[in-house]
Amino acid sequence: MCGICGFIETEATNPEMLQKRLNTMTSLLRHRGPDDGEARLFPMEGNRGFVGLGHRRLSIIDLSPAGHQPMANEDGSLWITYNGEVYNFQDFVPELSGKGHTFRSRSDTEVILHLFEEGPEALCEKLQGMFAFALYDRKRESLFLARDRLGIKPLYYAQTPRGFVFASEIKSILAFGEGVDTSLDLQALDVFLTHEYILSPMTLFRGIRKLSPGHLMTYEKGAIQIRPYWEIPSETRREVGEAAIAEELKEILKESVKLRMISDVPLGVFLSGGVDSSSVVAMMSNLSERPVKSFSIRFEDRTYDEGRYVEMVHRRYRTEHTEFVIQPDVLDLLPRLIQHMDDPIGDFSIFPTYLVSKMARDYVTVILSGDGGDELFGGYETYMAERLAAMMKVMPEKMRQATCHFLAEALPVTEKKKGVANYLARFFEGAAYPGDLRHVRWMSFWNDQQKRALYQGDVATALSRETHACIMRVMDSYKGDDALNRLLYTDVRSYLTDNILPKVDRMSMATSLEVRVPILDHKMVEFAFSLPGRFKIRGVRGTKYIFKKSMEPYLPREILRRPKQGFSIPIKNWLKGPMRDFLMDTLNERVIREGGVFRWETVDRLIQDHVKGVKNHSHRLWGLLMFQLWKSEFMEKRGRDH
Known about the structure:
With 642 residues, this protein is α+β, with helices and mostly antiparallel strands. A hairpin with a 5-residue loop joins strand 2 and strand 3 (49-57).
């Protein structure tokens, strides 16, 4: 895995200054690629400016200098800076060699270069893997950029008055500086607080955007063109047999894991004790001649700890297992983690994700993870909640809303991660909403009334009145008629691609660890969405039915039957315990009032209710805390530095 960056700057006349700027942009990505790097500047014809390409390399395939980037084709007319792994790249070598292309390395980077020469429009459809890259065509003086189908690898960009700039991380674009609009995007802030992440293509900077997953971009002569090259299928199979489907699923997963075990460096697997990571361990163990290296995080709080399930899997497959017990003092890591949150995420699990990555990096360079199974096969409680809430439609709407609001407020706060009271409070809070908004509400943390009380007057006026409009646009873009797949599609295109995957990428890359996600091979995604929803949820507690069915021969019954746990930490307890002073110091009255965005009275009430145990405002307070820390690091501190 690597870090990439670059720019096109027209009318520039100072190559020394641009080279220095490119060097800085590239060096800021060193954690993504500590093994090698280069920042190369190209003059444009007629002294009309310069093009820069930067690269930091984490060597995984072909560790020799032949894999050095930026990399050129045979005649130097095309140059690429590339981040990712294409697992089927060797399939194209014989055909490309037969067409006269020569290879100087064993890398997938060089294969992408030659495939581009054969036809850029069909390039990405051929690739199986995760990637983000930029190709500079010196003859056309244009840039071609692409991002993998699910957005496993990041790619940010900004258009400037004199050109264009891109990078794997926003901090590199900020280092370029000139002409980039870095003012706060209030709509993106509203989305962040509502959902704890920011949907593509937005970021908190008005002038910086994400290239959406499954999209291509060209920049030529000052114009940007963006188009999709892949979409999640919406048509489901009409006649399918359960046994055949379970066998097909198993074979797809097995092949996907096999491809992701190709590496010239040591590799391992994250093991949480859930169905998905345990399934990956099972497939790896059956494919490997040596014991698999597995890694997990433990918690002292038993309601958060999954240790006994981890033990079952690691003993069954005799993995070489390493684990780490997480303590409240990990909060000291927060300033360091914020430095990697160029585009903030409010997910509590940044801590265990970073720590398990840091631990694993001492032993391996590549890790496989089980991310994606819940969004493809229906693993979250919200999908079951949707079925239960639909049964309440027999009640008149006003009565249903009043009843649900009352019950959600009346249920007591508990310190447990999950429990009957927590489940019911969350359920009734969402069940008060109509139709499609129920699912969206269960996946968000502020409602319209709460945010009207949060924002100062001018900010509230500037924001859209519809809190969930961006998510609803995603939901409405699903063209199929399967109700469950519509919800799964929404979560893949929002929660997975803009929260789960960026969180894992940033926290693992902060430790120079590459994470591969076999369940999110595009063939598995297409297969999953070809299945009707009845194969994914059965009965009252039958989540991920067909996935579990396919894994019955490989996993203990306790793993298959256990409820969804989630990869989190007891932050709600820490915010009123060891983290209380930090919370109050960061969200103090002076900072809030001077910030000009939030009302102090609302923030103070949230803090007091939470620390006194009156209400659980952990998600809302954590979102505010993360935004304030991000703002200090990326707007205020950067402003002082410049």
